[in-house]
Amino acid sequence: MTKTKHELYALLSDAVVGMDEDTAAALSREAIGAGYDAYETIEQGLAKGMERAGKLFDESEYFVPELLMCADALNVGLDILRPHITTEERSEKHRIVIGVIEGDTHDIGKNLVKLMLSAAGFDVIDLGRDVPPSVFVERAIKEEAKIIMISSLMTTTMDGMEETVQLLHEKGVREKFKVAVGGGPVSSGFAEKIGADGYASNANQAVKLANELAQSK
Fold first, then answer.
1. Which of 78, 86, 147, 205 could join 200 in a cystine, given CB atoms 3.0 to 4.6 angstroms apart?
2. What are the φ and ψ backbone dihedral angles of 211, each rounded to 5 degrees?
3. Are 63 and 69 in contact (CB under 8 A)?
4. What is the distance between the alpha carbons of residues 215 and 205, in angstroms, rounded to a whole number?
């Protein structure tokens, strides 16, 4: 018997929280077979599950290993559903350029943020790690991104975040982009000091911030 949309979405969400890749795959295929909208299935099923996992992480019930396994289940479903998203839905996505600032190679946090942003419907361009400020700016312009997200886990590299903001001003394009920063040593006070538009302390907050920035002028 075919599940209703809401039943299937709830089960998909549970599969992500339960780190169950096989069930996530089976339910994603079932959604396509039943003719359910792929984008809605991602948004209401997989993304909701990753949001729940993020909250468990916030509450210290889940840790990085669990979050990564939830992300694996999420990705399995995404791989099945993405090819079925319509062109119109793809064009509505806000584009984000994300990366770890130059001098830093710690990217677990950045990778989690990328996964959750993708699940939430953002078009994410991942620049990787050890990314110079000039590359953030050049790629954001080239990709016509809405948001630039920069992470760092080393205090010695945080100046690169400020340099990125300054470069946007120097090129006369600061008003075209929202800049968000995050990572272990970063704070909301630091974000404000360097002229960034926002700060997130973890992946769950990063998605909320991205949604806020995407809707702002």
1. 205
2. -65, -40
3. no
4. 16
Residue 124 has which token pair?
């994410």
- DSSP letters for 131-168: B-HHHHHHHHHHHT-SEEEEE-S-GGGTHHHHHHHHHH
Pair of tokens at residue 105: 């190679």
Torsion angle (degrees, nearest 10) of CA 207, 161, 128, 68: -40
Q: Amino acid letter at 186?
A: V
Cα–Cα distance measured from residue 198 to residue 151, given in angstroms and rounded to the nearest whole number:
12
Q: What is the DSSP string of 51-80?
A: HHHHHHHHTTSS-HHHHHHHHHHHHHHHHH
Per residue in 107-130, pLDDT (tens digit) is 888 888 888 788 777 899 999 999
d(CA 77, CA 24): 6
Q: Which domains does the chain have, with CATH numbers?
A: 5-89 (1.10.1240.10), 93-215 (3.40.50.280)
